[in-house]
Give the backbone structure.
Amino acid sequence: MRTRTIAILAALSVLVVTGCGKKEGGKAKKNAMTAADSAAAASKQPFAMKEGRRLYNHYCGVCHGETGDGAGQYYGLTPTPANFTDRAFMKSLSDEVLFKSINEGSAAVGKSNMCPPWGNSFNPEEIEFIVGYIKTFSGR
Ligand code: HEC
């Protein structure tokens, strides 16, 4: 009798475990598909690139344009916001200069003071993400 109860309990727990396993699997698949549907390209990008793009679109796109061409909504600025799609221009700026101008503002790299310093808004890692992202506009 005792052995039988144990056997039944064991069989039941196996059922419970497999049952749960199936459910979890189904759920994970469903979530993955939703993410794929909403942002197929974005989901394939590494976190650094996604984060760089998110921050850029939120804070920089208004002047530099979401496509990086320097033609954001504040198109009347003098000088015009840097054009990140200009490969020659981007090649002339090292990663260190890009980092410094974002961190401390364009005035810190000998330009006008029209690009504000962002060092108080972002931590160094986030600035690295943005540097990585703005380089993609020119493929540099
Ligand atoms: C208020 C508008 C404005 C915003 C917002 C802005 N910028 Fe700028 N940015 C400019 C202007 C204008 C220049 C050109 C400055 C110059 O050439 O004197 C510039 C230049 C730059 C440069 C080039 C500096 C160089 O060495 O020539 C970089 C890099 C840059 N911005 C990055 C950013 C990033 C990253 C953000 C968002 C975190 C951002 N900017 C937000 C207006 C803006």
